[in-house]
Request: fold
Amino acid sequence: MTQISILGCGWLGLPLAKKLIEEGNSINGSTTSENKLSILKEAEINPFLVALESESISESITAFLTKSEILIIDIPPKLRGINADSQDSGRKIFVEKIKNIIPFIENSTVKKVLFVSSTSVYGDQNGIITEETKTNPDTESGKQLVLAEAILQNNPNFETTILRFGGLIGEDRQPAKSLSGKENLENPDAPVNLIHQKDCIGVIQEIISQSKWNEVFNAVAPFHPTREVYYRQKAMDLNLALPIFKSEKTNIKKVISSKKTEDILKYKFNLDLY
Reply:
């Protein structure tokens, strides 16, 4: 049995914790909501109320990390609406949060860290994007993710694997619903780069079971129809009003490759989920 701490038991962290418990692991799970502590406890997760801020961190962080060998960091930057030139952006809010937790990791039993990142770190580059492609983020959250990745990777006190997910979808998360009936949508022929919640969990399980540390993995299903084709078909499948895309084409045709994930982890994506 391995004890694992999951920082952020939200949309992905909670079902991930349940799967890891099924495999015989002991899980410490964090939430920022007192109301959710009972939900974690009911799922047999050891619940902790942990608030990771840019200027402080909850005292419970030490107990949260105690006796754990692996730490999974799954907290989104949440920087929407912050301009790159704004004062708040300059403070590097998310980066400071990651910096604040580093001393606690160093002083704990944690020796392996899995950091959930995003393919947004590549920005709008053309062509096939692999883990060897230079990061070139064009959003503030992407920029801060790149910095956070480096902080964790460069720390010699623990081994870090970076997992860069594409667009997240699941049974309760389908972008076609928010696009339904909308008009003049951009980038009709841009390829989709998506990953289902179940595949997110599956890839993480393989990284842990195979002990693949000090690595960087892209995780996107090898399924890349155009935005127009995919979202119109999904709208029809769900009996939703069709989204209407602009007629002009786009020059951005980024395809995220997960070949490394498939080759090294031997992971097979569940294409029927898409």
